[in-house]
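Lecture 7, part B: from sequences to assemblies.

Below are the input chains for today's worked example.
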Amino acid sequence: MAYDKFNVLESSAVPLPIENIDTDQIIPARFLKATERIGFGDNLFRDWRYNSKNLPKKDFVLNNNTYSGKILVGGKNFGSGSSREHAAWAIYDYGFRCVVSSFFADIFRNNCLNIGVLPVQVSAKFLENIFNEIYKNPDTIIKVDLEKQIIKIIGNQMFESFEINEYKKGNMLNGYDDIDYLMNIKNSIEEFAKKTPL
Amino acid sequence: MGNTLFDKVWDCHVVHRINNGPDVLFIDRHLVHEVTSPVAFLGLKNRRAKVLFPDKTFATADHNTPTKNQHLPVKDPLSANQLKALEENSKLHGISYWGLGHKKNGIVHVIGPEYGITQPGATIVCGDSHTSTHGAFGAIAFGIGTSEVEMVLSTQCIMQPKPKKMRININGKLNKGVTPKDVALFIISKLTTSGATGYFVEYSGNVFKEMSMEGRMTVCNLSIEMGARGGMIEPDKKTFDYLKNREYSPKGENWKKAMRYWLKLKSDKNAIFDKELDFDGNTIEPMITYGTNPGMGMSISNGIPKTINQNSEAKTYNKSLEYMNFNEGESMLGKKIDFVFLGSCTNGRIEDFRAFTEIVKGKKKSPNVTAWLVPGSHKVEEAIKEEGLLSILEEAGFELREPGCSACLAMNDDKIPAGKYAVSTSNRNFEGRQGPGSRTLLASPLVAAAAAITGHVTDPRTLY
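Predicted structure of the full complex, as structure tokens:
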């Protein structure tokens, strides 16, 4: 589906320095029963956020008013496990527009790009730097410039460039949609289908 | 430079190449289930688009279906609503739908091969990460998100950059009590859950050659657990014999034509892989996991490894052991078990039920263990009955449930209660995966059977 354009994002960030955060933690399977894309943000990190009595767990970062913003910063191998796009929806619906980590699982990264959440992969050292700066000053602003492919910590002026496939970058900058692209080559797809061996 | 098996299948499916962008890849088979499809169908509706090739699309209900009393209406209104949506969407778009109660119903990755929908050299996708299962037939098969499900429904194509290629060679002879599940858990424990991210894996060596098709499916199924997009195995006589005369397998002249293509599906001798790894099959023991990701596995007779030094990793590691209520260095043998789950797209096939039955035959289920035995499909269920396994299982105090994903992801009522331990033949031991607060130990059907009999973690080799 088409989504909002993404160009420059300047925001404070929410730190989650845990590795291998899997999509079952981002959104547990029992919340995948909707037939529409609504309300997933309420259940983002459900079992880390709420106890068995549905009361907020005080020690979880989303329940801590000190930290807020449109950028989620997670530990290495973020989004591993299930292909559920609901994980990316939950992150978007909660209000995040960018996830920063030193490593992303493949399917999760694709899902993010497909719905307009920018996954920014940085070096382990830069990630540590971001965490340190946020803990020092929770209002630290992180600037993510998609056009220039630069992520910068405004407080200490440290920055790093990040990779993104040119095509996907164009889609995000312009709010273009993959299916529109494919619909325009439908004739060649149908021709191709006639020649496939299976 | 020669081509890999993966190159050969990928390259002949590229419809269009985008400069500095992904390839537009044609998809031969699209498998659809109730949980990741409704929003995709809604997207089609909003675009006023149709399913481009309904005959290349197959729908089943498996993720949230009950495994008891499937003849009754589904109690949970949200699950019932998803099932209804898939039924209606399938009807509207002319897609075959094998819903609850249909004799072909079962877990999407179990029925695909059973009916010959899965074929060598095909590109297969599904909104489920364990789609990698179908790679056992020499297909390129991988999981996709819902936006991509909509893309495939409407255009039969997907846009993906071509992944890098990895080959994992395992030669040698597997020891007694070592199953394909152990081989996979062994590989993942070596590579970690992100060791193959960005790669498509080919499994090679005599260990995989000698495996049954069911075993190969178990191995390929778990490829995603080391981060790989998928895994595949060169098709051979076993593959072709398995597929011959299945409902959707090509017949007559078409079979011959398909065989001409299939016989070419092997990596050239001079093919280059971006990464190549070798392991010795003789050294693999029955495996079990002790933590909260599938990479945290070890030989069943070992102790839990000591904390890794690095700061950030130690934090995650300790969080994981705390969740499991285990300590470094501890042995898993003798740990009390509350639940045993045999099933899932990883280990819900007939061979898995044979292995389980082999251990429990003539013994009695521990009264402290609740065991859920869930066949992967009605076809598996039938085979369990026909082969006489059911009576042996019942004699030992077990009952058979009806097919579905069940406790693998606990979307239905099959939930492991908080704090309880389950030895599970499924694929993920993530926190809360089998129910909020549940604690999962992943293992083979043999280890699951041994735990079901003794009530604690037991080396199955002591029970033969």
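Note for the exam: The mean pLDDT of chain B is 97. Keep this in mind when comparing with the next example.
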